[in-house]
Amino acid sequence: MTKNKKPITMNLKEIHMKKVTIQDVADWVGVSKTTISRYINGRYDKMSDETKSLIKSAIEELDYHPNRQAQSLKSYRSFLIGLVVADISNLYTAYLIQAMFDALANSQYQLIIMNANNNLLTERDAIQKLLNNNIDALILQPVSSDSSNYDLLATSSFPITLLDRTMKDQEWAVVQTDNIESTKRLARLLIDKGYQQVIHVTEPIKEVSPRFERYMAMKAEFEEKGTVELWEVGVDFPLLSERLKVFEISQKTAFFAANGNVLQKLLLNLKETSLVNSELIGVTGFDDWRIGEVTTPALTAIEQNYNELGHTIIELTLDQLNGEPVQLRHIIRNNLVERESL
Length: 342
Fold this sequence. Notes:
Blueprint: H1 12-16, H2 22-29, H3 33-40, H4 49-62, H5 68-75, E1 80-85, H6 91-103, E2 110-115, H7 120-132, E3 137-140, E4 160-163, E5 173-177, H8 179-192, E6 197-202, H9 209-222, E7 227-232, H10 237-246, E8 253-257, H11 260-270, E9 281-286, E10 300-303, H12 306-321, E11 329-332, E12 335-337
Parallel strand pairs: 1-2, 1-3, 3-4, 4-5, 5-11, 6-7, 6-8, 8-9, 9-10
Antiparallel strand pairs: 10-12
Transmembrane segments: 78-101
Keywords: DNA-binding, Membrane, Transcription, Transcription regulation, Transmembrane, Transmembrane helix
GO molecular function: DNA-binding transcription factor activity; transcription cis-regulatory region binding
């Protein structure tokens, strides 16, 4: 409980004439310096919402800027969290980064973002650069699911959390979207609507766990009632165009795009064929880019919860930094939105 909101002995004009200190903020709110320090470092355990709100307002009103270098020297922390993403050009990644920045808004920690560009050597170089910057924690969206590719992290003592992808034989914490159950829900919907075949369109599955999980889930759920044909198109999307041009319709078929990048390319290429006018063709997928509402017809799709993914991974990282016991695996539920494309 705070003592009072604004002690009458504090004069805002006088405070602004000198460099604002953590003691000034504590006096302004009526709490201890320790409480202010805990707030700045994101340690909110046993801190009431009222206290957090008062501290936030005081920091803004007093224009207080914590000295990160001094904090680092005192606590042996850099207050830097490294983030390595597989492909920064993917709009899905941009949504996740925004959510993480929002989650860190009231924390002293800062993100350093590196792009692996879907390349193992580039990713390794990015990780090494972050290690050279003495990061306190690492959030990694790994290019590979093989833990042997990450030997340079084997002796790291800081928290490592995997974003949206899992890794074999590794016990790091992971926050990921619900790939398996959401894909199975969609497969059941396709069965209910009478589809006999699914064309599963994906970038190369090897080494990327979400792509593998989505494909296996579709096969497991749909193949009792129909067939699942795998099209791995990679970055060679002209190949997708050629396959669509020669595709022959023999039964009611649903095209399933395994992520937003593939979905965009699939929709664009379908428009250039006669398939788009067939009553036997349906289109669906993982809509990572929120384009389903503006397509014609509107798209039935699995929509991921970027905000919860981003906030959960930051909260998990901060809890580990603060020595809190954590659940190592967090699966964030998706939404299956039914529209007119099936």
